[in-house]
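Encode chain A's predicted structure.
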Amino acid sequence: MLRRNKWLTLFMAVLAAAVMLAGCSGGNNGEGGKTGATNKPDSTKAPGEAAAVEYPEGLSYWIHMNPNATATMATLGDSKIYQQLEKVTGTKVTWTHPSGEGAQIEEQFNLMLASKKLPDVIERNWLTVSRGPDDAIKSGTILRLNELIEEHAPNLTAYLNEHPEIKKMIMTDEGNIYSFPFIRGHEKLMVFFGPIIRKDLLDKTGLAIPETIDEWETVLEAIKEQTGGEAQFLQRISDIKVGHGFIGAFGIPLEFYNDNGTVKYGSMQPEYKEFLTVMNRWYKKGLLDPDFAAMDTKLMDSKITTGKTSAFVGYTGSGIGKYMGLMKDDPTFELVSTPYPTLNKGENAVWGQRDFAYTGIGAAITTAAKNPEQIVKWLDYAYGPDGHNLFNFGIEGESFTMVDGKQKYTDVIMKNPDDLPITQAMAQYFRASYNGPFVQDPGYIEQYLELPSQQEALVNWEKATTKMQMPLTTLTAEEGRQKASVMTDLNVYHEEMMLKFIMGTEPLEKFEEYVETLKAMGIEEVIKLEQAALERFLKR
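Encoded structure for chain A:
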């Protein structure tokens, strides 16, 4: 009997130890999972965190690949970042990447929705989705994430609790969180796009950096004459749409804007006709690139690196940095930034590029996901300290090292042994150079902008104000349906007429007729919807 009690006591002790170990294992606080787990006591859990959920064995993920990634990889599964993430979490990702740009991607997205064959995760800008994110939830496309994040995403939950202004941005007016957001973690990360010019060609003309629209026209004509008649200015439709092109010189963006609390639509204002008049004149003079309407990344690369373009609007990194890198064997090739142009000398442009900390880009979980809790845990990893390093700096010892407590990129990134441009080397190891579901670190941009011309660009471009920019409003599901019923056809007509006006196939004398057509198609009703959304946002 004594021996039996002894063994019983020993058995109970072993059992108790096993229970204690089980309670400490699994993915904790975004630090580990099925493999490489870091055990932490329950006291590390954020308020409301449920029992630890293991990472999924696999998931499917739909995302458009950044051009710097497609330059060296077939899928994101080929990247070092996601190979490392698989080692940490044990999760195998099946990637789907739509091809093309802009409207082509939207078409493939809509076809996917119509097929009812959804992946587990869709990453995109959800504020630009037809009918808005609330409708995507109500129609059964994606999940409301509020409770899932509170229970299973302690890293993101902690960040949002510390940054209530970001939480306000990522929620709809109905209170829904719909994606794991891309967040720019510092002011210096929010300006990165603007006008760029070939300084070596400009210097040959003897002219100064252009500041006004008239000065730009004079400069482009002078460079065109010197270079044998090539059209010198490249501005894509996508640049005009977001108000980052030269349209801002006329005081408006292409689409909706906030004029002291009143929503207006830029493309029906008299200033829009002024912009079209100038672009039409530049097109006729051979100053505006004739391929501007169908410009993709490869064609743009070709034009800039072969001297067929002397000025364009682009990025500090994949604009100035990329092309200076590609043309490093040409000692005469030099790119510099210019301020956003104005109509009058000495003024600062009222429109330029300045991102919000959140822009609508995020990873949403679809209703097709059979294990949303586990996917939430997997996505939350990027918002923890180890995931933050992985998504911003890559793999320690390969793409970065720690120097005086800061992450420093290695020569794999800054002086790539395969002679890759920095942007392409970065894309192999992390996502800080474009976007994704994580918080972008300012340490990325501090090292990325190594050229003085890149650093000067931020000074030039941040002079433009964005006080009339619409905040991140959201429409209700019903408002989203109403807007989509109007804007689907209106956007097609609007872009078609913009091209016709610029190319001269439709005379600008028909501008008023064009505006009346916009009204007949329902633009004024959509302005009212946007006005209501703005007023709701201001009351959040």
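The radius of gyration is 26 Å.
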